[in-house]
Amino acid sequence: MKTTISQVSKYVGQEVVIGAWLANKRSSGKIAFLQLRDGSGFIQGVVVKEEVGEEIFQKAKSITQETSLYVTGIVREDERSPFGYELTVTNVDVISESVDFPITPKQHGTDFLMDNRHLWLRSKRQHAVMKIRNEIIRATYEFFHENGFTKVDPPILTGSAPEGTTELFATKYFDEDAYLSQSGQLYMEAAAMALGKVFSFGPTFRAEKSKTRRHLIEFWMIEPEMAFCDHEENLVVQENYVSYLVQSVLKNCKLELTTLGRDISKLENIQAPFPRITYDDAIKFLHEKGFDDIEWGDDFGAPHETAIAESFDKPVFITHYPTKIKAFYMKPDPKRDDVVLCADLIAPEGYGEIIGGSQRIDDFALLEERYKEHDLTSDAYKWYLELRKYGSVPHSGFGLGLERTVAWISGVEHVRETIPFPRLLNRLYP
């Protein structure tokens, strides 16, 4: 019976055939232990000389790291294994030999591992991170489907900057200028006016010259947008969504979290509702903690976000930022126009902002005024203003950064490990 490692629990006591690669091996006298992987998981194959004979035993002992092979064996339950099963090998057939695989079980530097990212992905740790990333993606589709959202795909090539910033990758679009999208939000607002509740999931690009552990040049965003939705309702969707992601990973990625050494007690507590603190109170809090470098009207940096997050055991919303440091489309607080109806969601344990969201301006005259203030005179923004002209409604949305969320939930330090092939300030290879 041909099967995969992830499915061997169905075949306890039976002989199966698994296509695999040799991740590692060791031998002790007349027994060889093969650490096998097939993409679906890892399992130990035990080769006993007395049971398989000299020829097969010597073949098993001579297999080199990352050689591909078909392994035949009997599935056994094994309580000592984190996976719970092992394979008593009866035969091995080499498919393709691997010679001098560069990533050995010894320690390697980060630059070396990044240069060999195409091979580093095969390691047990990277496998676990990618499985958690996949579960977060799966749970995302499930959550929004169950809550009545429609998936919409905004364009990657755009004629304008959604945030009105200069951190854009420019390209030529035949005889006009175009940019790689840094957010699909503006297009999602148009989609929400047609479909009510929508979400997108796709790549975004920021030409930001940052080298921190939280930043990538190319990353993936989940961006929901909701018609007839105010600021408070928006926060409820966000906290329910993040709670859903964490609980899904806890349920379906126990082995991967164990592989990464993640303290799951810190994740088990992640249930809605989440605490909230206003920008005003956050400034006061930081001053009390000795952060004299920040004043009202400044944006928060990583140390500030971390200090605030350390006071809570769940993600925390920082709400009502100053109007002048936020995007042009955010709706002012009706009670005071110097702040907007927005929130950043800060993850615990120093992982920083994972969500930015707001209620959007729905008044035509006010948005037109913002256009003038931000010098958005280009015809590229005309269509966005028109959304407020034909049946405008209160609407809100947010964007969740996938890689930062994966880093936080999996407990890895740097976002470069949370995407298959990271694009960093000085890295475009492989």
UniProtKB/TrEMBL annotation:
Catalytic activity, reaction form: tRNA(Asn) + L-asparagine + ATP = L-asparaginyl-tRNA(Asn) + AMP + diphosphate + H(+)
UniProt entry keywords in alphabetical sequence: Aminoacyl-tRNA synthetase, ATP-binding, Cytoplasm, Ligase, Nucleotide-binding, Protein biosynthesis
Subcellular location: Cytoplasm
Superkingdom of the organism of origin: Bacteria
InterPro entries: Aa-tRNA-synt_II, aa-tRNA-synth_II, aa-tRNA-synth_II/BPL/LPL, Asn-tRNA-ligase, Asp/Asn-tRNA-synth_IIb, NA-bd_OB-fold, NA-bd_OB_tRNA
Top class in the EC scheme: ligase
PROSITE patterns listed in its UniProt record: AA_TRNA_LIGASE_II
Gene Ontology MF term list: asparagine-tRNA ligase activity; ATP binding; catalytic activity, acting on a protein; nucleic acid binding; transferase activity
EC number: 6.1.1.22
Residue ranges of every copy of the Aminoacyl-transfer RNA synthetases class-II family profile domain listed in the record: 130-430
Biological processes annotated in GO: asparaginyl-tRNA aminoacylation
GO cellular component terms attached to this protein's record: cytoplasm
Family that this chain belongs to: Belongs to the class-II aminoacyl-tRNA synthetase family.
NCBIfam families per record: asnS, PRK03932.1, PRK05159.1
Quaternary structure and interacting proteins, as annotated: Homodimer.
Annotated protein name in UniProt: Asparagine--tRNA ligase
Lineage: Bacteria, Bacillati, Bacillota, Bacilli, Bacillales
